[in-house]
Specification:
The protein has 5 domains: about 90 residues, no CATH class; about 160 residues, no CATH class; about 60 residues, no CATH class; about 70 residues, Winged helix-like DNA-binding domain superfamily/Winged helix DNA-binding domain (Arc Repressor Mutant, subunit A); about 70 residues, Arc Repressor Mutant, subunit A (Orthogonal Bundle). It contains 24 helices and 10 strands. Strands 5-7-6 form a 3-stranded antiparallel sheet. The longest helix has 22 residues.
Length: about 500
Amino acid sequence: KAAYQEQIQEWYQTYGANYTRMANVLNSIDCEDFIRYFLFEDDQKMLMVKDVGYMSLPLISHMKDRLLKEIDIIKQESENLALRLFNKTHSSLFVGDAFATDFFNRYQHAPIFYAMQKMIERQMYRDEFVAFLRRYDIFDGKVEIADKTVKKSDYTVKSYSNAVYDAFFVPGAKQEVLGEQIVKLFADQEQWKYLNLLPDNEVLTSQSEVIKRLVDDEHLSLSPEFVMAILSGVFSQKFLLVGGYLRNFGTAKNKIIRHFYLVPQKMMCQAPLVDEFFLLRDMIYETNIRKRPFDLMAYVGTRSYATHDATCDAQMAEVLKTLLRGELYLQEDEQGRVILPKRKESVLADRLYHILDVHAKKPVSLEQLTKEVNADGGRKYVRATISQTLKKDKRFINNGRKGFYALQEWQLPFIGTNRTILKQVLELSDHPMTGAEVMAVLSQYPYNGHLRKSDLSVVASMAKDQFVKFGFGLYGLKGKEYDLSRLVSS
């Protein structure tokens, strides 16, 4: 294995100017760590398929895939090492190339999704899709498109394509899988028989059962969102992918749809769906809609794109309702009408609530909340406004003086103001505690990492109506009886 590692290292160091950065990594102090963590026995099989030069691009991507899978293990051993390696070893290819390699090694045939992914490349010049790739780190940090990458190396666009397909497809595999024939190939596969079950009257999300089943049945290591992107590329006449990208709405502001939606084309009734959603969302943000609950069906009927066909208008209303539910977390009443917030503040409070909810019982700083709520698009808020909203709404709780917020419903122990936290800890003890003992209790809860022993001393000194300092660095609660004879004897 040592000889194999030397071969890998020599190849990385000598191959092409396009991989100077990779050579620098292997020449750095991290070289041994990289080899130790990211070289596997079956990687030798990769080298033996084709000559070293021909396999270079896929192999680099294969290494990136290994990196992404192993990063959690490395974090347990060295947080700093993980960060350095993660930042330095990005490749210039799709993560899907690495997936295709792993799939080929496991099942000895080419994955259909890899061919479909190549179709998606044709859409890379669209701003929305490039932003989608950037978000999911499918390209390297510079978001370089494939043809720009090959111009930096000895490859031409054609040889790049040939090298990739020769590397990943079984001998004799035809590139006819590209183009329109991919649809036939897709439909003819027995394991894809449920493709016909994809609904044409329902908006699909990453949580939809049919998408989850598709990923599981095909042994895919791709995200559900990326699978949805592939489906929208292959079946562009049937589906439209909405979300996950920046979109200029004719103003200086960028509009963002944070989640992903696979929308059947027939449900859109030729309407400008994205523009219509942004218009409706802005109306809600500015509370210009006076009727509550809000009848989306009636609203669609007044728009210029309305077909005056009840079925078509109802489908368009359902699409908009799904986006409002997913992006603004709005619910419906028994008649299917959208329930709108009564006050502007409740719009912001609901957004803050769901941002915190996503963080799964981990308090978030005011700075981070401001950043995330303004990233949603729509009205921009300053920190002062967000802080006031959080303090007024009983669903939120402020953790200490450092501006970290959590949800009351989480019922996290030892959370609140510094005074409240100290009081909660001392209430659990039958004897006075030192600052070190208090910190030992709090150290089990990472969200209290901002507290110091000096903070406890200040709190105890300022709140003499609640705390008692016994000397020797001991703290207790005023009015609570302690066995002081133990302290004297000790």
